[in-house]
Design brief:
This protein has 2 helices and 8 strands. The chain has 100 residues and is α+β, with helices and mostly antiparallel strands. Zinc ion binds next to loops.
Length: 100
Amino acid sequence: MKIPKKVNRYCPFCKKKTEQKIKEPTKQKASSLKRGGKIRIRLRGLWRGIGNKGRYSRMKNQQKRKRKTTKKTNLLYTCTECGKSKNQKKGKRTSKVLIE
Ligand SMILES: [Zn+2]
């Protein structure tokens, strides 16, 4: 989906329509060593060898499941007048976001 760099949009801080820049916020990586995390399970030595590993055998099967090919867009609108920014409320499903 092609998206313009600048857009005229309502700014809730200025309470009027202003020119706003569009940016895609950088994604934050989830910590891999959280409780119940897949990396933590691997460090414990599960997911290895043969036989039934209880609930972790099931988790291995979940990886094989089909995943969604599209993601919802996450855009950040920054007002050029006050400099404040706001996130997009509803994202649309697309496979790619091109900001021009
Ligand atoms: Zn503003």
